[in-house]
Design brief:
The protein is α+β, with helices and mostly antiparallel strands. The strands form 3 sheets. Strands 7, 8, 9, 10, 11, 12, 13, 14, 15, 16 and 17 form an 11-stranded mixed sheet that branches. It is elongated and about 70 Å long. It starts with a strand and ends in an 11-residue tail after the last strand. About 2% of the residues have low confidence.
Length: 296
C-alpha cells in the first residue's frame, strides 16, 4: 500500500473527472470506482465515497491503495517510543524520510500516515503526522514526528534552541590514527559543486555555516575500521559525513564523501534522542540493526 497526493486545479471539477485526469496511470477500468467505494480516496483530509462530488479549486486529493510500491514498509516494531502527542520511528536505511522528486516513491512520512490509517483510529479522515527533522536516505535511525498539531510549537522550539540531545554511531575507514578518545571539531561548511555529484558540502576556512560536532572513539578494529559516536551540536546538511571525511575517516559506504564500495550501506545510524517534552524526560535508543559483519 502507498499514498499519492495531488492538488486540484484552479477551477472546480467533478471528482470522477479529476481522478481520470490525474490517476489514469494508476487506476485502470473500474479500479477508480472500486477505490472510491472501498474508502481509499480522501478529499480535504476526509474520506469521500460519492463519485459525482464537486471538488473545489485547489483542494487536496489523496489516493491510498495498492499501487506501485518501491522500497520497504514500516510496522509497529519500528516504533521506539510513542505517546498521544508524538512518535519516534527507527527508520531503515535506504528509505527517504519524506517525499522526493520521484513523486510516488515510498517514504517514511507517507508510510507513517498509512500506518495510522490502517489502525482505524481515524475513521473519517487521514491521521495527522508532523515531521520535525530528517535523516538522509541512506542513514538509518531515530526520526521524531508529532501526532497532534498542538505539539508542534514545543517540538519546533526544542529543535530550534538545540535542546534535543542527539547521538549517532558511525563506522569509519581505518585511515589516520585517532589521537584522542574524545574531541570536538568546529568548522564552516559550504555547499559546492562535487566532482561526481551535482552538489555536496565542504569544509571551508572563510565562508559557510558554522558546524560543531563532538566525537568519542567507541572501538577500533585493527586494520579494518573505527566505531565513533558523534554528537552534532549544529544541524548542517551532511555535517557528520563532511566532518569525518575531512578529518581522514570517511564513513564506510559513503559514496559521496568516501568510497561507495567500502560497505554495502552507509554505516551511519541515529542511535539516541533525549529531550524534555511536556514535563517528561524522553530518552530513546535504537542499536544499528545491520552492521554488515562488523562487530560493535
Amino acid at each position: 500500500m502507498n499514498l499519492i497526493e495531488i492538488k486540484a486545479p484552479g477551477e472546480a471539477i467533478q471528482l470522477d473527472s479529476l481522478i481520470r485526469k490525474y490517476f489514469s496511470k494508476h487506476l485502470k477500468g473500474r479500479d477508480a470506482e472500486r477505490f472510491l467505494k472501498e474508502g481509499h480516496i480522501y478529499l480535504a483530509n476526509r474520506k469521500e465515497t460519492r463519485w459525482k462530488t464537486r471538488v473545489k479549486a485547489n483542494s487536496k486529493l489523496i489516493l491510498v491503495g495498492d499501487l506501485q510500491l518501491q522500497n520497504s514498509t514500516i510496522c509497529s516494531e519500528d516504533i521506539v517510543f510513542e505517546n498521544k502527542s508524538l512518535v519516534i520511528w527507527n527508520k531503515p536505511h535506504g528509505l527517504p524520510t519524506q517525499g522526493t522528486m520521484k513523486r510516488h516513491e515510498a517514504n517514511l512520512y507517507d508510510w507513517a500516515r498509512l500506518f495510522y490509517l490502517e489502525q482505524k483510529k481515524f475513521p473519517t479522515g487521514l491521521p495527522y503526522v508532523g515531521l520535525h527533522h530528517r535523516l538522509d536516505r541512506d542513514t538509518s535511525g531515530l526520526v521524531l514526528m508529532s501526532k497532534q498539531r498542538s505539539a508542534n510549537k514545543e517540538l519546533s522550539d526544542l529543535f530550534k534552541n538545540r535542546q534535543i540531545e542527539k547521538s549517532y554511531l558511525a563506522c569509519v575507514e581505518w585511515g589516520e590514527k585517532i589521537p584522542d578518545k574524545q574531541w570536538t571539531f568546529k568548522s564552516l561548511i559550504k555547499r559546492g559543486q562535487g566532482k561526481n555529484f551535482p552538489f555536496q558540502f565542504f569544509v571551508d576556512d572563510k565562508v559557510g555555516d558554522e558546524a560543531i560536532t563532538e566525537f568519542r572513539l567507541v572501538k577500533s578494529e585493527e586494520g579494518k575500521c573505527h566505531w565513533i559516536e558523534c554528537f552534532p551540536k549544529t544541524g548542517r546538511t551532511h555535517q557528520l559525513r563532511v566532518h569525518l571525511s575531512h578529518l581522514g575517516w570517511p564513513i564506510l559506504g559513503d559514496r559521496v564523501y568516501g568510497h561507495k564500495d567500502s560497505a554495502p550501506r552507509l554505516m551511519l545510524h541515529a542511535q539516541r534522542l533525549k529531550f524534555l517534552f511536556q514535563g517528561q524526560v524522553i530518552e530513546c535508543e535504537a542499536p544499528m540493526s545491520n552492521t554488515e559483519g562488523l562487530s560493535i
